Amino acid sequence: MNPTTALRPAAAFSPARTLATAARVLRQLRHDPRTIALMIVVPCLMLVILRYVFDSGPHTFDTLGASLLGIFPLITMFLVTSIATLRERTSGTLERLLALPLGKADLIAGYALAFGAFAVLQSVLATGLSVWLLGLDVTGSPWLLLLVALLDALLGTALGLFVSAFAASEFQAVQFMPAVIFPQLLLCGLFTPRSAMHPVLRAISDVLPMSYAVDAMNQLLHHRDMTSAFARDAGIVTGCALLVLTLGAATLRRRTP
Question: Transmembrane segments in this chain: where (predicted)?
Answer without folding.
Answer: 36-54, 66-86, 107-131, 143-166, 173-192, 234-252
